[in-house]
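Predicting holo structure, NAP bound.
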Amino acid sequence: MAHRILILGGTTEARQLAGRLAGRTDVAVTLSLAGRTVDPVVLPVPVRRGGFGGAQGLARYLSDERIDLLVDATHPYAAGISRNAAEVASVAGVSIVALRRPAWMPVPGDRWTLVENGAGAVAALGEKPRRVFLALGRQEIADFEAAPQHAYVIRSVDPVEPPLNLPTATYILARGPFREEDEQELLTSQRIDVVVAKNSGGAATYGKIAAARELGIEVVLLRRPQLPEVPAAASVAELLDWIDHWLDSVEKRGV
Ligand code: NAP
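Done. Tokens:
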């Protein structure tokens, strides 16, 4: 019988993993999305959308759906769902593995200012008016209403509705990956003097970091949240290997 896998997604890697597992007969995969983005991307496996209703709701779902393996392939800043996943898996005795995308590390030429959160980023921008590129999710950008002296260029996947209460804000709708040369063009044409971003890791959104370095522009980076310690892989390929080993071991135990 196929082993039932729930992938907690919302990332490119979750989608890629689902694609790699989709045709197999030894696993039955469902992908779970928070459901905040209007996602036009066609997904290769059954999808469920929306929160579970906290750790208890997730526990109920895992039991109702007889999930054998939970794969936490959420965004590195989605700490709430990652904590719930680790806690519920341990209590319910469900196997868990996480995709932990390595963080970007500074290289010579980077001008990074590390901050704890959106409010920290606002403070780091200072009093003097600047031209700020906000490459953050919709959830974090509300903090910047506290600093209306700056001019903002705000990029998001879905429209920011309602728009922020800011006198000078330009909205750009786009979905990554973003190429370094396009990011350089954006930073130059918009006369950006500071970028605010998360340390997402991976190649898809690194272009703005490389572009800022090239142009000598400061990057205010939100620190990554603390994530629970669970078995982890750093890439989709590693995750597939981990899952194959896990399948071998459950077959051997006759589970
Ligand atoms: P979060 O604080 O971990 O999640 C908040 C709640 O959303 C969770 O407790 C859960 O609700 C629900 N949720 C999150 N991911 C889910 C999934 N895959 N399936 C079902 N429910 C899910 O994180 P967040 O609020 O989503 O995002 C925090 C940061 O991560 C932001 O910076 C955001 O821009 C970034 N991010 C998140 C995603 C994503 O898909 N979550 C994607 C890209 C970037 P219940 O407690 O009700 O189960």
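Helices lie at 12-21, 54-64, 79-92, 118-125, 180-189, 207-215, 236-253.
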